[in-house]
Inverse folding.
């Protein structure tokens, strides 16, 4: 029985490991002995100005995040308000707030993806390059 469970657990890990393989790009920044220091908007702007290839992609990805946050806020408040108006149930409105926030984030991200043409950029590479740039810059400061 133990071998059966172990075999299936390994298959399960491999299956989901393939689907979340993009997280491997971030593992060297997350699994550090000393965490990276926080960065500010001016640091991000300095990277955008210094990197002509990945800078515009990172700038567009940051703009897309603003779309997603706006969509999340609109979705959460409107869905919770609608639920409260018709049910007067606190727990129902709370769940509607959470679900509306998730759905609004998704719709906002999709709107940004199409309106900003995010599909033309490799945002994962841009974010990774920024983290590498920030790692180098913060190590030089130390």
């Amino acid at each position: 029985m133990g071998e059966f469970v172990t075999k299936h657990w390994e298959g399960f890990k491999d299956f989901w490991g393939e689907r979340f393989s993009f997280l491997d790009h971030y593992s060297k920044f997350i699994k550090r002995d000393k965490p990276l220091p926080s960065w500010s908007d001016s640091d991000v702007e300095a990277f955008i100005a210094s990197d002509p290839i990945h800078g515009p992609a990172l700038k567009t990805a940051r703009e897309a995040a603003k779309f997603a946050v706006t969509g999340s806020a609109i979705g959460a408040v409107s869905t919770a308000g609608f639920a409260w108006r018709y049910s007067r149930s606190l727990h129902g409105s709370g769940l509607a707030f959470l679900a509306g926030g998730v759905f609004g984030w998704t719709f906002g991200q999709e709107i940004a993806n199409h309106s900003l043409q995010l599909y033309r950029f490799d945002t994962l590479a841009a974010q990774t390059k920024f983290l590498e740039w920030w790692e180098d810059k913060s190590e030089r400061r130390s």
